[in-house]
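Design job #97: recover the sequence.
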């Protein structure tokens, strides 16, 4: 029965973390920042197709992959916008769109940092310039990794297909490529979440304490995205309820779900660590136990 008691305690702590740390409110903030930064980022992405040919050739594949996660109403907004930008792209970088995308994205990252500090019950001790540099760095780095990752995936597929054709294995290679892209996408999502869990909270981290939140969060996000897409396609009537902005509401709701799962993953990591031998106690920043504990009323 000890496993049952431990599981019940864990689930109770998860609910308390959600309730006490206002995860729902923070997820709503994240959803707004995600939506606010999406179209400036796409506006910045389109001209890069002139500089990185592999990215330009992968737009359709990228949109095809996005269809597996996003509801049709949301894709109906994003797909025409992105295709129009790519078709009209000129070989110069839109600095205004880039600035807006980086700024709004960094505000979202900053909101995640604040929420993670609540999960670990610590106050931010790093200087302002350092947290801002961290927010902007993760935003820029994440965008670049997305572009490079898509280009590398397409380039690798093209090179592999060329080699497979010469070995008369092109059909087998295409079948393998269709299946292997999903593990790659899942691992990339886990890596991105893991980096956020490692870098953003103002605490010392160990790898084994951030893997559970990244793994559980990725699985939950995939299931939630599939469930939400199914609901919107088969049962939801957002266009009837909200009229012409129904697609925007669907997209914002999906961003809210994404932010909620990301934040709950941080809560899960913090709870698992405080319940595990060798982990930090509530309110401690390091494993040495030298940090001053926070007062109970701010936990």
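Job complete. Output follows.
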């Amino acid at each position: 029965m000890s496993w049952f008691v431990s599981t019940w305690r864990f689930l109770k702590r998860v609910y308390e973390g959600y309730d006490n740390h206002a995860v729902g409110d923070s997820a709503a903030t994240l959803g707004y920042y995600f939506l606010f930064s999406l179209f400036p980022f796409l506006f910045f992405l389109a001209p890069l197709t002139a500089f990185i040919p592999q990215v330009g050739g992968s737009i359709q594949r990228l949109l095809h992959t996005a269809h597996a996660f996003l509801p049709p109403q949301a894709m109906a907004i994003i797909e025409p916008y992105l295709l129009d930008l790519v078709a009209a792209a000129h070989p110069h970088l839109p600095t205004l769109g880039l600035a807006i995308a980086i700024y709004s994205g960094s505000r979202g990252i900053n909101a995640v940092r604040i929420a993670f500090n609540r999960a670990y019950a610590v106050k931010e001790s790093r200087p302002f310039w350092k947290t801002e540099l961290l927010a902007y760095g993760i935003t820029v780095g994440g965008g670049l990794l997305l572009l490079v990752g898509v280009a590398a995936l397409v380039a690798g597929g093209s090179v592999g297909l060329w080699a497979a054709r010469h070995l008369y294995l092109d059909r087998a290679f295409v079948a393998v490529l269709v299946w292997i892209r999903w593990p790659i996408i899942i691992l990339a999502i886990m890596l991105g979440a893991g980096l956020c869990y490692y870098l953003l909270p103002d605490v010392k981290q160990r790898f084994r304490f951030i893997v559970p939140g990244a793994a559980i969060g990725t699985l939950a996000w995939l299931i939630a995205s599939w469930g939400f897409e199914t609901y919107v396609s088969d049962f939801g009537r957002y266009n009837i309820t909200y009229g012409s902005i129904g697609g925007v509401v669907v997209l914002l709701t999906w961003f809210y779900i994404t932010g909620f799962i990301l934040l709950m993953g941080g809560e899960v990591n913090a709870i698992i660590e405080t319940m595990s031998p060798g982990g930090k106690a509530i309110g401690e920043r390091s494993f040495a136990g030298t940090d001053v504990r926070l007062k109970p009323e701010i936990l």
